[in-house]
Amino acid sequence: MTTINLNCDLGEGGKYDALLMPFLSSCNIACGGHYGTVETVRKAVELAKQYHVQVGAHPSYPDLENFGRQSIILPSKDLKESLHHQIDLVEDACQLYEVNLHHIKPHGALYNDMRKSPVLANLVLEVIQERNKDLVLFSPPRVNFQNDSPHSIPIWIEGFADRAYQNDLSLVPRTQKNAVLHDPDLIFKTVFKMIKHQKVKSILGEEIDQKFDTICVHSDTPNAYEILKTLTSQLSKNGIKIDRT
Questions:
Q1: Which of 6, 96, 105, 110 is surrounded by the fewest CB atoms within 10 Å?
Q2: Which domain holds residue 42?
Q3: How far is the C-alpha of 60 from the C-alpha of 86, rounded, in Å?
């Protein structure tokens, strides 16, 4: 049976984290850059432990005002310090609840900018390397890292269940029509094609080859619970198991 890692961005102020968590393999916890405090991070990590969900840090540009969804130019030293501080919040909570920090997933504009800037993509890798931990990087597809990534940092290519893609596999901006998918049945068909056939259909109708290691559903998509419930049920019926290790 095919197995897939299913993840969600949590600890971002949504009301339904507790409902979403049981469906997931892994979660990405906002850690103060775009949202989050010590208390929200601890609550999310505690919830992840309860449901045996892998914990990841979800750092972003330090931009609470814009929820981390606008690009910011910062000196590399300052951005690195901010990312380390954000990851520290999650790592401290992991130590408190005796769970492992599994991965790092950049958020919002920082995530998307990794595709545009090899220098920025490598800065993210350097931050992970400096943690001296066995951490996975959740990355968008087709990132041109400036240098070969250290073999000690596994890179999992992430696909989005509830977002439309452009022909170059960048995400359709949220400001554009149909950028966010809401129909659970359409989302299942999209994800099934991603996993089983390693293809994505762009918003312009082009089918693009791409293998994904993990699939994300956004917790702030209004019907995220309905999407996850339908998605996990339909994947199971079609021979795809959600990784719950």
A1: 96
A2: 2-242
A3: 8
